[in-house]
Specification:
GO terms for molecular function: transmembrane transporter activity. This protein is mainly alpha-helical and about 325 residues long. The chain has one domain (about 20-40, about 55-330): Orthogonal Bundle (ABC transporter involved in vitamin B12 uptake, BtuC), CATH 1.10.3470. It is about 70% helix and about 0% strand. It contains 15 helices and four strands. A two-stranded antiparallel ribbon has the order 1-4. Strand 2 (about 180) and strand 3 (about 180-185) form a beta hairpin. Helix 3 packs across helix 10. The longest helix has 27 residues, at about 225-250. Residues about 1-15 and about 20-25 have low confidence and may be disordered.
Length: about 325
Amino acid sequence: MSEPTTERPASGVAAPPSPRGFAGLGEMRHLGLLVALALLVVVGLVTRPENFATASNLVSILALAATIGVITVGATFVIIGGGIDLSVGAIMALASVWATTLATQSFGPVVMAVCAILVGTGAGLVNGLLIAYGRLVPFIATLAMLVAARGLAQRMSDRKTQLIQPENAALVDLSTTRVLGIPLMVYIFALVVVLGWIVLNRTTFGRRTYAVGGNPEAARLAGIDVRRHTMLLYALSGLCCGIAAILIMARTTTGSSTHGDLYELDAIAAVIIGGTLLTGGRGTIVGSILGLLIFTLITNLFILNGLNTSDQLIAKGLIIVVAVLLQRRNLKERAP
């Protein structure tokens, strides 16, 4: 009677890591992020209790986090899949400018929203095609898109801020209308986060994302179309940029080529702080959102305390360096 055999991947190719294998590490990191959030809250209560612990300040924090947060969800998928997207801020700006042109506004707020989503998804799809089928390095492809999208936005708007017309005020209502004291745009952000978590943790697409980021060759041998999946990841990131463009148009009542400046850095930093590996294969939506809230609270505390913006950037840079060093330390400790 023959002994049972265990199927193994091809010689020299490691099996893709399972996200469940990192469950304990993820929970520990989330606990650390929650502690960091709690410390920031304490700092706010101690330094500016009269301004920090107010309903208006809480709404301001959530509104600021909403726009970057939607982009962060898309960035989480891309980085877990082993890529990087430097163009998210520029794509959001392009989508906002395209949606606020007079020709688009004449069709109403629904068409404006659809236009922003289509422009964002289309730009993300171009990134995906260049990377997956054009064999360009993600850093180079998305850097080129950053420059091109920002330039196209400037060309379309003639470097001018485009105001949303009064007849399209329904779009602005996303920022001004509140349910239980919270703007509608925050609920849209929460919906995107929930859908992102479901897709990443409860669908085949999510499992394939971990597999492609963890070991592309093993994923290919397992029957996954790695190039097609990579293209879809960047299209998803572009879709999130389109949704973020709607939110920033609602919050500022404008479309501008300057929207989203350095948003790519905030989004990527939030993902890294949240525990997602830059090399791919590991990460969580929850961790990314906690990282985003940490960054948003830091920004809020600096503003309330009247500290210099340059000091804020220095603090964020130090946080990113510490997060990466902790990642490397954790990986070395768990290396066989």
